[in-house]
Amino acid sequence: MSLHQVTKRYAGQAVVDGLTLALEPGRCHGLLGPNGAGKTTTLRLALGLIVPDAGDIRLLGRPVPREAAAARQRVGVVPQADSLDPDFSVRENLIAYGRYFGLGRREIEARIPALLEFAGLTARAQARVPTLSGGMRRRLALARALVNDPELIILDEPTTGLDPQARHLVWQGLRRLIQQGKTLLLTTHFMEEAERLCDTISIIDHGRIIAAGSPRELIRRHIEPHVVEVYGEGAADWASHARRLCRRCEQAGETLFCYTDDARPLTDALDRRAGVRYLHRPANLEDVFLKLTGRDLRE
Amino acid sequence: MVWRKLAVPSILGNLADPLLYMLGLGYGLGQFLGEVQGVPYLTFLAAGTLAYSVMNSASFETLYSAFSRMHVQKTWDAILNTPLTLADVLLGELAWATSKSVLSGLAILLVIWGLGLYADFGLTLWLLAVVVLTGFAFSGVGLAVNALAPNYDFFMYYFTLFITPMVLLSGVFYPTEALPGWLQTAAQVLPLTHAIALARPLVLGEWPAQAVLHVAALLVCGLAGFYAALVLTRRRLLR
User: Fold this and answer.
1) Is there a domain that residue A31 lies in?
2) Residue of A15, A64, A75, A85 best to disrupt the B interface, most CBs of B under 10 A
3) Is the dihedral of CA B43, B48, B51, B56 positive or negative?
4) Any idea what the CATH number is for the domain that residue A249 is in?
5) How far apart are CA A117 and CA A37, in angstroms?
6) How do residues A191-219 score in pLDDT, each as one tens digit?
7) Which of A150, B113, B137, B182 has the fewest Cβ atoms nearer than 10 Å?
8) In Å, how far is A196's CA from the nearest CA of chain B?
């Protein structure tokens, strides 16, 4: 899948603004961005569901939106909103969805045991959708996206709203798909998810890619390696002091984030000071994300 | 089209209402009215009920049910992620609503046949075609209204401002000739009037006058509705 200089405007405002993105086959790509950054619009453009105002899009080698329907034959989509059919059982959902790809009933039924096993729903094959938990539904949505044996799987926030147990199960499933050589494109708010699963990450804001690379590259390129978080009532007073001891320092509410190449002078100073607590940790993707997109709420 | 699962319960629901109207009014009111247009009131009412039942069934399916699938359950969105397009989805909904309304019509037709409320059995077979046409017309219009609806409440307007007045004006319960002249003219543009203009003579054992005109009116209604639905739904979902 590739997008080249793609722009989409709504009421004169560019939601996707000259965006360029290319996926390498067989890898997992993450699309990160704050709310309203243009993630879902990008996915809808790539699937040919909406027409761009400018730019070239290709999906599995086919020009989009012109040949989008044919290209979607080999793509699986896990949408953000639950779109399973509530009147159907787990099994019937898979059969009905397979029929939309023009697959024969026999062909689909032959695939169902493997799909159920993949989703961990073998025992619930006859259960109706409303009786499933949120995690089971999401796993069923994932299994449904695989019914046509796609080369590319697009997942829009696959683990939003799931508890940690359910999230880990979904991650396991995605890792198996990566091992099978599928190409994945996922959007997420969870930096941990992106860091664990993705080979490459693109950070999108205001409809543009503002940074791209592997998680480690992004951290190395954009952020100091050590982070010291300072909490407590004394944290704010200590800010001016901290600025002398680290490269960069940000205050968010009661917490002071100090970014530095060498944390020792900071931690030594903090050990001597009463009334503050601190946490020394390596920099992660969330630090990069916040640095690049800011700490302001997007609504 | 694996939606047939819900067909039986909803047919029962769709059937009960028109059947109660027909039998209740037919027998009850019929006592006082005697004959209308030379036949017992129940027989007169049969054709109106048939058209009314098909219209109701098609409207409910394309409004409440289609809206659920489009807006609440996101079934349409899910289908659009497959090689199918919006036109395929709408065509599927049209075929589904039409077929379901035909089942409702068939149920009423069975009652008409069972009670012998006809003059010429051969002519009543043509009612099947009228039922399909009427279902198609109201499914098309319903899908267009569905495309415009922000929520379920919107459909109340469609029913109270369009469907209910139409039921009262189109000759379901009495001949349209009973209306004052200007209302008769107004009734002529309502699709249900055309459906009844076809169905009633067939029940009473005559070939409908101006059949081609009535068939054309229903066809135009369905086609125009479907085309509007396509344009409006595209604007709604794919932008």
Assistant:
1) yes
2) A85
3) negative
4) 3.30.70
5) 36
6) 889 999 999 999 999 999 999 999 999 99
7) B182
8) 27
